[in-house]
Write a structure and sequence with these properties.
One of its GO terms (cellular component) is beta-catenin destruction complex. The protein is mainly α. The protein folds into two domains: 97 residues; 68 residues. 81% of the residues lie in helices and 0% in strands.
């Protein structure tokens, strides 16, 4: 490549450096996102293992372990907020993860697999999970109460991810969403990301007092 003047050469170098920085920033964002997803996976696995071993634990042991895991999730959420602060690229990349963590902390969502797919913005896999649940319910492999809880979580996650729900799904959600889930839906829709955590935390404090 030939440059006619020193100024043109200098401008090219500035442009080249900007491209390099943008590329490096994108790579760092990708690595950061991967590390955060791995941390979240570990916490979700803890919750899943806890639920699977619930019958083998006494009530106090179960509640204490769950409380510790939720506290770890809360600390993870605080770290996530600091990382995202002022960085719009990260806000776009990690907003789904933040919402999913808030849903877990508030106990609006109780199914680790659904929380994980919500955090990773995987609407296709959420719909696959729902189809599997429909089949399991029909053949008697899934309890109706558990089916309702998990379906409400999946439909809420799909809505948050911008997916269009059928009229039947909207009706199911309206009929079966509990108070905690409705509150989560409200604060996560109406407020900016910084206020979501505060509003949800306030709701948790009030819920604990009752």
């Amino acid at each position: 490549m030939h440059f006619g003047t020193g100024q043109e050469c200098a401008e090219f170098k500035v442009l080249r450096d900007k491209i390099k920085m943008a590329s490096r920033g994108k790579t760092e964002t990708s690595k950061l996102k991967q590390n955060l997803e791995e941390q979240l996976d570990r916490l979700m696995q803890q919750l899943q293992d806890l639920e699977e071993c619930r019958e083998e634990l006494d009530t106090d042991e179960y509640e204490e372990t769950k409380k510790e895991t939720l506290e770890q999730l809360s600390e993870f959420n605080d770290s996530l907020k600091k990382i995202m602060s002022g960085n719009m690229t990260l806000v776009d990349e990690l907003s789904g993860m933040q919402l999913a963590i808030q849903a877990a902390i508030s106990q609006a969502f109780k199914t680790p697999e659904v929380i994980r797919l919500f955090a990773k913005k995987q609407p296709g896999q959420l719909r696959t999970k729902l189809a599997e649940m429909d089949r399991d319910l029909m053949v008697g492999k899934l309890d109706r109460g558990l089916y309702t809880q998990q379906k409400v979580e999946i439909l809420t996650a799909l809505r948050k991810l911008g997916e269009k729900l059928t009229a039947d799904d909207e009706d199911f959600l309206s009929a079966n969403a509990g108070a905690i889930l409705s509150q989560f839906e409200k604060v996560s829709t109406d407020l900016g990301s910084g206020d979501k955590v505060l509003a949800l935390a306030s709701f948790e404090v009030e819920k604990t007092k009752k």
